[in-house]
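Q: My labmate handed me this sequence with no annotations at all. I'd like to see what the chain might look like in three dimensions before we decide whether it's worth expressing. Could you predict it?
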Amino acid sequence: MKLKIIILVVFTSMILIGFIQSFAMANQINWQTYEQGIEIAKKQNKKIFLYFHADWCKYCVKMGETTFVDVNIVDLLNSRFIPIKVNADDEQKIAAMYDVKGLPNSWFLFEDAKPLNRLPGFVDNKLFHTILKYIATDSFQKVTFKEFNKFL
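A: Here is what I predict for the chain of 152 residues:
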């Protein structure tokens, strides 16, 4: 009898842990490496969000703690883009390809990895969410960002 209870408790605990882990993963950005992200974007025909950061950069840390934990931003990045995170110190060749001089530094790329637009510096949740919607909906092809922002 005790053995059945122990097995039941262990089994229930494993299911609960799995559920908690999958929930936590759903609320995080699914960051890719540069090479993997470019390949995935081409296969899935999705735009790319390319984010350059460094561990010592206080505004990069701030974006990680504020902007990139916003549920709406996480959802948009994971569903409509292939998010790529590049440490500019560790991957200097890639940073040089995009002429990264300051951090944080973000790029939006088309599905074929050609540059769409650059977004330098720290961006707060509200503005970043609006920018994501503007690019994800291809509104940049029809109206200016200023015009798009009026309708929100």
